[in-house]
Amino acid sequence: MKKPSEIRTVFGNNLRILSKDFASITGLAHDLGINRTQFNRYLSGESFPRPDILAIICDFFKVDARILLEPLSDDANGAADQLDPFLSEFFMNSGGILSEQTFPSGFYRFSRRSFIDPDLFVIGLVYVSRNGGNTYLKGYETKKAMCIQHLPTQPEYREFRGLMMQQEEGIAFMASRKNTMTASFNYLNRVTSFHNNFWLGYTTRTVPEGAGALRTTRLVYEHIPQTTSAVLDAARNTGFYKVDQLEPFHRRLLRPEEPFT
């Protein structure tokens, strides 16, 4: 049987591993609803939480109470433990964990050609976050796009989410709206830029082949400054745009005059 001091040490080590992908310990403690000073005691192994606090921590990181007893590896909080063993070693092995350095958390502006009207381009905003070692994406379809498709425009219907994975060269993710039976497959790879904050790839809709129907197009992601003013400005400027209204570097990367091959 482990001594209390051993349990505190194991839990502290595990909690540090689970917390390493978060930009701010203060912000993480706030999200958990735990006093920062007390959270530091957990991290240092000075104390361990009450059962109700432990339940909050386990639920937040999608782990169970074994974090009190069993050491985690640096990647043990990854999605591999959350997939069926039949798939985990094929999709989310240790190399599939997407690091903060490779693809930082935060807000991204994206642009691509519209699937609905190929003469227009979509500019959108997504938020990338991490939880329990997984990297998630969340965003909203534009109201105009939903109207054109005769779909509800309330936020709960426009919201889409995705799970991101590291690839040998780049990043892949699937994204879908809630309670729908369509999705998109997306691939991105970092490109050279002044601030090293641009990714270029493509997105593909899961729809049947049809005459004249656009199913795959180039996709650009830009990690924007994480300030309130920059995020609000990006949010206000989402929607449909003509090619000459695109940001110059987005337009350069999208190469609208060249068909996607």
Task: Show the helix and strand layout.
Blueprint: H1 4-19, H2 25-32, H3 36-44, H4 51-61, H5 85-91, E1 106-113, E2 121-131, E3 134-140, H6 143-148, H7 155-158, E4 159-167, E5 170-177, E6 184-191, E7 198-205, E8 216-223, H8 228-236, E9 239-241, H9 248-254
Antiparallel strand pairs: 1-2, 1-8, 2-3, 2-9, 3-4, 4-5, 5-6, 6-7, 7-8
Helix pairs in contact: 1-3
Main traits of this protein?
9 helices, 27% strand, 434 Repressor (Amino-terminal Domain), Lipocalin, alpha+beta, 2 domains, 261 residues
Protein architecture, described:
This protein is an alpha+beta fold and 261 residues long. It has 2 domains: 1-70, 434 Repressor (Amino-terminal Domain); 106-254, Lipocalin, CATH 2.40.128. Helices cover 30% and strands 27% of the residues. It has 9 helices and 9 strands. The chain has helices at residues 4-19, 25-32, 36-44, 51-61, 85-91, 143-148, 155-158, 228-236, 248-254; strands spanning 106-113, 121-131, 134-140, 159-167, 170-177, 184-191, 198-205, 216-223, 239-241. The chain has an 8-stranded antiparallel beta barrel. Strand 6 and strand 7 (198-205) form a beta hairpin. Helix 1 packs across helix 3. The longest helix has 16 residues, at 4-19. The chain is elongated. The relative contact order is 0.11. Mean pLDDT is 85; it is low at 74-81.
